[in-house]
Amino acid sequence: MITSVRVSHVNKSTNVRSIIELLLQRSLIRAGFRLAPGWAADRAAGLFLRPWRRPGPGRSRYVSRETPFAAESALGPVAAWSFGPTARTAPAILLVHGWEDDHLSWAPLIDRLVQRGYRVLALDLPGHGRSPADITGIPILAAGVAAVGREAETIGAVSADRPFKAVIAHSLGGTATLIAATELGLRAERYAILAAPNHPRLFAGAMMQMLGLSRQQTATVFTAIERLIGRTMDSLYLPPKLRQLAVPGLILHSREDRTVPLQHSQENAAAWRRAEFRILDGLGHRRLMTDEAVHSMLLHFIDSTAPVDAYGPKSDAAD
Questions:
Q1: Domain that holds residue 109
Q2: Which residues are CB-neighbours of 21 under 8 A, at least 6 positions away?
Q3: Are 2 and 60 in contact (CB under 8 A)?
Q4: How far is Cα 140 from Cα 131, in angstroms, rounded to an integer?
Q5: What average pLDDT values come out for the chain (319 residues) when binned by 10 residues?
Q6: By C-alpha distance, which of 119, 62, 101 is closest to 302?
Q7: Is residue 223 classed as helix, strand or coil in its secondary structure?
Q8: Res 19: pLDDT
Q9: pLDDT at res. 1
Q10: DSSP 116-149
Q11: Which end of the chain offers a freer environment for a tag, N or C, measured as fewer CB atoms within 10 Å?
Q12: In whole angstroms, what is the distance from residue 136 CA to residue 283 CA?
């Protein structure tokens, strides 16, 4: 009881500081566009590509033993942890959190997976938790996921003929995971993707609206973002990439999600021919990571050998 109160207080304080900082940045960037547009565009792009550092969730249900390790990507080290059995015969699961979260967001699910005999690997995405990064963005996040996938082979969690049993990923971590799977060699028998946006313009546009920028100013910032991440945002659009995925998938999205529109998962599911799509009720965006009913559905998806029965009972029809 005391712990939850303290966590709530920290979250509220952090939210207030974040709002104040955003208002200050808004004033600075809007003034900058009048005096030095190039500087202002770079400033806004950097703000978009740098996640807020949110406090991690409580660890009251987090009891599995952890073994930390690091994966090296071209952009720096990625902090990761291994949980559960270390025998090479133990099937491995990779968990990927979303924007402004960290690996602790998966704590309850980690424990359930370990109890089922799985070896669980979880990472802090670049720029999150203990993984340093000056800027982030989907290509950088995807590179971090792929780096952990390669390191998993080095430590014996997976091998060339024994890939991850499954990868479970949330939100922007899901987008990065699918980029890593279709472009960077990440291998798994199946993927469970929770409420993943399929285009970075969703968040980039929302950020520019919060900054109060005009359409022309927004276009200038988008150009700066693309220069910093080294590719166009349109090249990161997921549906064309998902058409090449031949492994089973499970896509979950809550109807009340106010962070990622339901349409993004609908488009992803339409492109991914072996993906089952479920619309859930009452979970919003982040609760998908901690809800026990969702965990049960994920466990059934992972444990099943027949794809036709891989997804558990439908809690709602996918309209």
A1: 1-319
A2: none
A3: no
A4: 12
A5: 27 47 74 85 85 57 75 90 90 95 92 93 93 88 96 94 96 96 96 95 84 90 92 94 94 94 95 94 93 94 64 44
A6: 119
A7: helix
A8: 56
A9: 22
A10: TT-EEEEEPPTTSTT---S---HHHHHHHHHHHH
A11: N
A12: 27
Question: What are the angstrom distances between the C-alpha of 75 and each of 135, 143, 225?
Answer: 10, 8, 17
H or E, element range at 73: strand 66-73
Degrees to nearest 5, angle at CA 146 with 120 and 175: 90
Q: How far apart are CA 160 and CA 247, in angstroms?
A: 16
Residues 297-310 as b/e (b if ≥16 CB within 10 A, e otherwise) read: bbbebbeeeeeeeb
Alpha carbon of 305 to those of 82, 155, 190, 290: distances in Å? 24, 26, 11, 25
Q: What are the backbone angles phi and psi of residue 80, rounded to the nearest 5°?
A: -150, 165
Residue 23 is predicted with a pLDDT of 66
**How far does Cα 216 stand from its chain's mean position?**
30
- pLDDT at position 112: 93
Number of domains in the chain: 1
One-letter identity of residue 264? H
Q: What is the pLDDT of residue 6?
A: 28
How confident is the model at residue 315, as a pLDDT?
Answer: 46
Buried b (16+ CB within 10 A) or exposed e, 105-140: bbbbbbbbbbeeebbbbbbbbbbbbebebebbbbbb
Considering only CA atoms, give the Rg of the chain. 19
- Burial, 24: exposed, middle or buried (Cβ in 10 Å; 0-12, 13-18, 19+)? exposed
Distance set, CA 119 to CA 82, 83, 167, 174, 264 (Å)? 7, 6, 12, 20, 31
